[in-house]
Amino acid sequence: MGLVVQKYGGSSVADAEGIKRVAKRIVEAKKNGNDVVVVVSAMGDTTDELIDLAEQVSPMPAGRELDMLLTAGERISMALLAMAIKNLGHKAQSFTGSQAGVITDSVHNKARIIDVTPGRIRTALDEGNIAIVAGFQGVSQDKKDITTLGRGGSDTTAVALAAALDAEVCEIYTDVDGVFTADPRVVKKARKIDWISFEDMLELASSGSKVLLHRCVEYARRYNIPIHVRSSFSGLQGTWVSSEPIEQGDKQVEQAIISGVAHDTSEAKITVVGVPDKPGEAASIFRTIADAEINIDMVVQNVSAASTGLTDISFTLPKSEGRKAIDALEKNRAGIGFDSLRYDDQIGKISLVGAGMKTNPGVTADFFTALSDAGVNIELISTSEIRISVVTRKDDVAEAVRAVHTAFGLDSDSDEAVVYGGTGR
Ligand code: ADP
Ligand code: ASP
Ligand code: MG
């Protein structure tokens, strides 16, 4: 008998019908002879609604209290799911992240899992239960405060539990049939990928393909847990994310040259205008940002439009950290020495990802040609060995993704990609 971890995203449990549908699926897995651990997200857009509510009472809610609020979303779905399973005549018990032994550091709103001690889950399984665990939450090791793992963090909970329980597979159930060559909400001709390596999936995830969270893929790679991303609405095979290619029929699925195109409109750009062109300036800007516990993405330095002898330094960061970054830089203005700050949240990022880039020199040129043919202006560029990313105007993103997808021959010639649920929020 094997142990499977299944994770159901918010769109799969958006309402009572969804919860009952998912409950049936879980019971099937149990009837097939598996021990089943289920990680569940908050229903539908509950997390967004709770954040909106918090912002109505305070423009910058305290991290600790926001975590306490947001974890309520997953408590609702885990309890309802356990009830629905019991209603089908099977034993189930729900657990908060803390009860399930998900131990984190104490960085509120984006805590990292540092240990998983699933003793209670094991006992529940041994007693014949299906264990339902609230995703996205844990408890901090030092202060014993409730924490959350960052948006989309239930994926990480699932993989961390799969690793701690030595599961055979971690199944991530969502509202599309797997990982596609682009977001099916933007590219109708996107193709489902049968197998993708951890490396390419990591790049796609960190470039904005929210179908899997970056930290979850990182965790899966570290513990070599295969992930199967699939739809909770269809019975189709999904996408395998693992270290080695899978077999399909009697042939092996090959590593694609280009895995896909990702986009991200959740970032903003800050430009520090009029920075003295001398050693140590960039260091003090980014030290200030790091001390505020903000992660940045792309960085570029230009000769300043303000005056000679000065430079402008631009960087991108999550929009949700914009206010905090501006406040931190303003506070340290005298120390750093700059003219002004510009904040721009009307940007978007498009990334092309594929291990084949390393050995195919024309890829970069083709990427820029596709963008230029689509009339898209590029503001920032960054690359890794297996990724090229550009920042453009937000309004150009959808068009740019489709143009690049077509230019690299990724368009499917059969069916349109299906999106079964969710609001895309
Ligand atoms: P869940 O609620 O199940 O966690 P998410 O909304 O977090 O679902 O993730 C699924 C969504 O990810 C899809 O509906 C799709 O719009 C989006 N997505 C972005 N890029 C991709 C991609 N390359 N392949 C599949 N889905 C993608
Ligand atoms: N409910 C949380 C969110 O919306 C976590 C998750 O869905 O994975 O971000
Ligand atoms: Mg998700």
Outline the secondary-structure elements.
Blueprint: E1 3-8, H1 16-31, E2 35-40, H2 46-57, H3 63-87, E3 92-95, E4 102-104, E5 113-116, H4 119-126, E6 130-134, E7 137-140, E8 146-148, H5 154-164, E9 169-174, E10 195-197, H6 198-206, H7 214-223, E11 227-231, E12 239-242, E13 247-248, E14 251-252, E15 260-264, E16 267-276, H8 281-291, E17 299-303, E18 310-318, H9 322-331, H10 333-336, E19 340-344, E20 347-353, H11 363-373, E21 380-384, E22 387-393, H12 397-407
Parallel strand pairs: 1-2, 1-9, 2-6, 3-6, 4-7, 9-11, 10-12
Antiparallel strand pairs: 4-5, 7-8, 11-12, 13-14, 15-20, 16-18, 16-19, 17-18, 20-22, 21-22
Helix pairs in contact: 1-3, 2-3, 5-7, 6-7, 11-12
The structure holds adenosine-5'-diphosphate, aspartic acid (ASP) and magnesium ion.
How is this structure best described in words?
The chain is an alpha/beta fold and 425 residues long. It has a domain of 249 residues: Acetylglutamate kinase-like (Carbamate kinase, 3-Layer(aba) Sandwich), CATH 3.40.1160.10. It is built from 12 helices and 22 strands. Strands 3-6-2-1-9-11-12-10 form an 8-stranded mixed beta sheet, with helices on both faces. Helix 2 runs antiparallel to helix 3, helix 6 packs antiparallel against helix 7 and helix 11 packs across helix 12. The radius of gyration is 22 Å and the shape is globular. 46% of the residues are buried. The model has no long low-confidence stretch (mean pLDDT 94). Adenosine-5'-diphosphate binds next to loops. The site of aspartic acid (ASP) has 13 residues, from helix 5.
